[in-house]
Amino acid sequence: MIRHGLTLWNKERRYLGSTDLSLTEDGKQELVSLWTDKDISFSKLYVSPMRRCIETVATIFPDVSYTVLDELKERDFGIFEGKSYDELKDTEVYKTFINSEDREIVGGESREDLFNRIKGCLDIIIADLSSSNIENIAIVTHGGVIMHMLAKYHKGNGTIYEYSVENGKGYLVKFFPETMEIQVIERI
């Protein structure tokens, strides 16, 4: 699982969900620097349709075939979209969000809907892989999707924040489709 490269809003630490931004030039250069000497290869990629993910794939895996899955889009951050922590921290709606276990976002995607979408995505990938001999795949998506996927399916069952991942980095994992469990091998 790989998080897309750096965008302007990532650099400015703004909530970036449904807004379709491109990578910055620095973000592209950082991806090249991070991935040039990695001894990891993938037979197939599953990618969010957002520009930042497609551009990440084009930058670090230009010769690998990929399938775009809408289910890999980032969470819709509703009224938080495009805003920074500093802009939100003193508002009641944000305080409620931060202190709520459900973490519902006004005008955005619920956490339950996000988990259901991720489950549906894994079902699609499992079905695709079961009809082929491909085993070594990568998912190029967003930080929130990776964090929620691992929080739900990693055998350690940690909180989403334990799985925070920097732009251009990710996790090498092993997936067990029969139990819907993910084992983290290492951070990449």
Structure notes:
- With 188 residues, the protein is an alpha/beta fold.
- The chain has one domain: Phosphoglycerate mutase-like (Rossmann fold, 3-Layer(aba) Sandwich).
- It has helices at residues 8-11, 25-35, 51-60, 85-88, 92-99, 111-130, 143-153; strands spanning 2-3, 44-47, 66-68, 137-141, 171-176, 181-187.
- The protein has a four-stranded parallel sheet.
- Strand 2 (44-47), helix 3 (51-60) and strand 3 form a beta-alpha-beta unit.
- The longest helix is centred in the middle third of the chain and has 20 residues, at 111-130.
- It starts with a strand and ends with a strand.
- The model has no long low-confidence stretch (mean pLDDT 93).
Count of alpha and pi helical runs: 7
Low-confidence runs: none
Query: Strand-and-helix sequence, N→C?
Result: EHHEHEHHHEHEE
Under the CATH scheme, which class?
Alpha Beta
The chain-level structural class is alpha/beta
Quaternary status: single chain
Spatial strand order of the main sheet:
1-4-2-3
CATH homologous superfamily? Answer: Phosphoglycerate mutase-like
Q: Please state the overall shape, judged from the principal axes of the Cα atoms.
A: globular
Number of strands: 6
Helical fraction equals 25-40%
Residue fraction in strands? 5-15%
Mean pLDDT: 93
CATH topology: Rossmann fold
Largest sheet: 4 strands, parallel
Number of domains: 1
